[in-house]
């Protein structure tokens, strides 16, 4: 079988398999929540697959090759800091993301600051994600072109068409299921190729001896330094990979929200980070070095015609056909896995930040499903246009730098509420304009200062200094007691509570203490819910558990809040505030799970005659309270925990007591 035929069959089989998986998961989607967040059912192993797939994507892989060949092994290996950032994200940021509960990171910006800030960040995020979709598709097409001569533009169209099919039919469920196949494939194939090379071509000594003597090879620190702020600096790339890429990205925010619990989300990121450190950090740079050593004369740096980003294609032609063809197939598969997720994230940005605000503000999740799909297709079209305008490396650097603007604002705000609505907006706009101006004016090249430093400098400087001289929200003022004393509660003015505010108080009383729970309860935009929450906080009906990180989005009732529930007859007496307090819907789910252990959310919804979008929040709260537990690799199967059984027994006891009282009254 010829190289072309084998490649076509392999790629075709992989793409067909991905498409079939997406079609099979279509039946799991009943709302935009299922479409964007996979019904919040994703397990730790599936989440790890989705995150790790990013490491196999062609934009990352191409940079591994460029860095290894042009600058040496150690600059390429330094990209492993990405995987450290994943671990840190799981251990530190995931809890806050899930307490906030918004589907996209930009919703948080409006909740914390205002809509202009959200819009500015949304635009930067949207174009950043589109840049990386374009870069990855172009990179995958370039590898196929270098390996088998496939024309780049038609290949890009084919790849993006498959991405469109996965997104259109499967949403994040389709992406998540395809991640299983694609990530396992990558974790097996690339290490297998490295083992083959070390056994049948030559070990490490052979590799060192055959890398051209005038190349940086395995010397340390290679072609990079630790003192400059340019594009050949370990410090610059460390900041871009560790800070800019991860913490302010909708991609990771949405992934964290799709997990079935906080622990699952944390474990998924930690597992992905550990696997990335153990495999990707070593395997990909070594494969690039083998590609260089096997045919050094082929590359532009040695007088040839192949650019460094074509290294893995050259490597694939230098080993037996049956093994070599698996390399481009692997890159195609991993790219589709990653960029389908990026399309979903982009669609969520447009849907929630613009469409739902200006076109369909009253639409429910089921009605937003079709617009989600249409927006996804439009994102793919725009991404294709950018593949015709910019090259891979330029797209990747713009992507990373744009995301850095959002990342630094979030990291500062987690620990210091210094930025105001005005200063955050001005910081975001200045960062965006600074990046574009510094890049396209040529100042980055002429000064030797990378645009990421301009972005971060402007964002931090204007955000912090502007925040110090402009008015901030009440909770950032001097003298504000986060956890109020009894005197502070009594001094606060009474307010007439809206129905929505009573629902928030009831949510807290029944274990839904996080801002995410309020969003699920009220089904209103996050900024409107935040207005209700802040009024309750100022009037001392509730208080935040702290000012930092996840505690800022977790709440408790004050005595005034408890009295308000009793006065409004939402609960009967103060004795209602017990560890077993649940509302009627929570009780219904507990009883259903008790009757049918192992039941999935679709069947619970059918039993309750409610859509999944109404039932998932109830399940999430019961999981948070540890009344039920979930298991299952793909779909979550529910069962009662010991705490759930105790709660059910308490409910049964209460029912029996009520019946006895009625019988006594009748007698």
Brief write-up:
This protein has helices at 3-25, 32-37, 44-56, 58-71, 73-77, 81-100, 105-112, 115-148, 152-201, 204-210, 234-244, 250-258, 262-294, 311-317, 321-324, 326-358, 369-387, 392-415, 421-440, 443-447, 451-469, 486-491, 499-509, 515-522, 526-538, 559-567, 584-595, 601-608, 612-624, 642-666, and strands at 542-544, 555-557, 628-631, 637-640. It has 667 residues and is mostly helical. The strands form two sheets. A two-stranded antiparallel sheet has the order 1-2. The chain has a two-stranded antiparallel sheet with strand order 3-4.
Instruction: Provide the residue-averaged pLDDT.
Output: 84
* Alpha-carbon Rg, integer: 27 Å
Strand order of the largest sheet: 1-2
Q: Could you describe the largest sheet, including whether it forms a barrel? A: 2 strands, antiparallel
What is the structural class? mainly alpha
Give me the CATH fold name of the largest domain.
Answer: Sodium/glucose cotransporter
State the separation between the terminal residues, measured CA to CA. Answer: 90 Å
How would you sum up the global shape?
Answer: globular
What would CATH call the class of the largest domain?
Mainly Alpha
In terms of per-residue confidence, which ranges show pLDDT below 50 for 5 or more consecutive residues?
Answer: 31-38, 656-666
Per DSSP, the total helix count is: 30
- Per CATH, the superfamily of the largest domain is Sodium/glucose cotransporter
Number of strands: 4
| CATH architecture assignment of the largest domain | Up-down Bundle
Helix content bin: over 70%
Strand residue percentage: under 5%
Q: How many discrete domains?
A: 3
GO molecular function: symporter activity
Protein name: Sodium:solute symporter family protein
Membrane topology: Multi-pass membrane protein
Subcellular location: Cell membrane
């Amino acid at each position: 079988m010829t190289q072309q035929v084998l490649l076509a069959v392999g790629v075709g089989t992989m793409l067909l398999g991905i498409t079939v998986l997406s079609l099979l998961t279509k039946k799991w989607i009943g709302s935009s929540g299922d479409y964007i967040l996979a019904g919040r059912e994703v397990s730790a192993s599936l989440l790890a697959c989705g995150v790790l797939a990013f490491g196999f994507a062609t934009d990352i892989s191409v940079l591994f090759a460029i860095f290894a060949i042009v600058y040496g092994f150690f600059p390429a290996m330094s990209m492993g800091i990405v995987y450290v950032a994943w671990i840190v994200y799981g251990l530190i940021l995931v809890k806050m993301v899930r307490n906030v509960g918004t589907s996209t990171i930009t919703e948080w910006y409006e909740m914390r600051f205002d809509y202009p800030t959200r819009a500015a960040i949304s635009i930067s995020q949207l174009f950043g994600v589109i840049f990386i979709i374009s870069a990855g598709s172009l990179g995958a097409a370039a590898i196929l072109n270098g390996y088998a001569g496939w024309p780049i533009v038609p290949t890009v169209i084919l790849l993006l068409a498959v991405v469109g099919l996965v997104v259109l039919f499967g949403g994040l469920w389709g992406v998540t299921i395809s991640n299983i196949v694609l990530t396992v494939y990558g974790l097996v194939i690339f290490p297998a190729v490295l083992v083959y090379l070390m056994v049948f071509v030559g070990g490490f000594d052979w590799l060192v001896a055959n890398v051209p003597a005038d190349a940086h090879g395995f010397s340390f620190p290679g072609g990079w330094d630790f003192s400059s702020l340019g594009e050949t600096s370990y410090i610059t790339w460390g900041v871009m990979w560790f800070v800019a890429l991860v913490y302010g990205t909708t991609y990771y925010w949405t992934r964290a929200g799709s997990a079935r619990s906080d622990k699952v989300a944390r474990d998924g990121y930690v597992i992905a980070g550990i696997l990335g450190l153990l495999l990707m950090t070593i395997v990909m740079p070594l494969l690039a070095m083998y590609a260089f050593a096997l045919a050094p004369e082929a590359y532009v740096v040695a007088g040839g015609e192949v650019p460094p980003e074509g290294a893995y294609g050259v490597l694939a032609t230098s080993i037996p056909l049956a093994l070599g063809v698996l390399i481009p197939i692997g890159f195609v598969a991993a790219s589709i896995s990653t960029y389908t997720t990026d399309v979903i994230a982009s669609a969520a940005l447009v849907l929630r930040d613009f469409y739902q605000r200006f076109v369909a503000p009253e639409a429910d999740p089921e009605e937003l499903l079709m617009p989600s799909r249409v927006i996804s297709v439009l994102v793919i079209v725009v991404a294709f246009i950018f593949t015709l305008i910019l090259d891979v490396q330029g797209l990747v650097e713009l992507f990373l730098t744009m995301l850095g603007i959002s990342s630094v604002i979030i990291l500062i705000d987690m620990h210091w509420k210094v930025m105001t609505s005005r200063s955050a907006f001005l910081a975001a706009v200045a960062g965006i304009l600074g990046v574009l101006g510094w890049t396209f004016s040529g100042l980055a090249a002429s000064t030797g200062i990378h645009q990421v430093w301009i972005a971060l400098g402007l964002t931090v400087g204007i955000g912090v200094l502007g925040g110090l001289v402009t008015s901030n929200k009440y909770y950032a003022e001097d003298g504000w007691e986060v956890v109020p004393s009894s005197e502070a509660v009594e001094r606060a003015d009474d307010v007439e509570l809206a129905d929505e505010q009573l629902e928030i108080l009831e949510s807290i009383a029944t274990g839904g203490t996080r801002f995410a729970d309020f969003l699920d309860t009220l089904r209103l935009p996050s900024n409107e819910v935040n207005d209700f929450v802040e009024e309750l906080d100022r009037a001392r009906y509730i208080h935040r558990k702290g000012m930092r990180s996840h505690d800022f989005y977790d709440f408790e009732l004050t005595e005034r809040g408890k009295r308000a529930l009793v006065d409004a007859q939402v609960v009967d007496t103060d004795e209602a505030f017990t560890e077993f307090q649940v509302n009627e819907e929570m009780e219904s789910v507990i009883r259903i799970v008790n009757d049918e252990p192992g039941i999935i959310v679709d069947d619970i919804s059918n039993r309750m005659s409610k859509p999944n979008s109404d039932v998932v929040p109830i399940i999430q709260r019961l999981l948070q309270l540890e009344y039920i537990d979930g298991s299952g690799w793909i779909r979550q199967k529910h069962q009662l925990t010991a705490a759930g059984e105790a709660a059910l027994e308490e409910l049964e006891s209460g029912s029996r007591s009520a019946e006895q009282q009625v019988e006594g009254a009748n007698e």
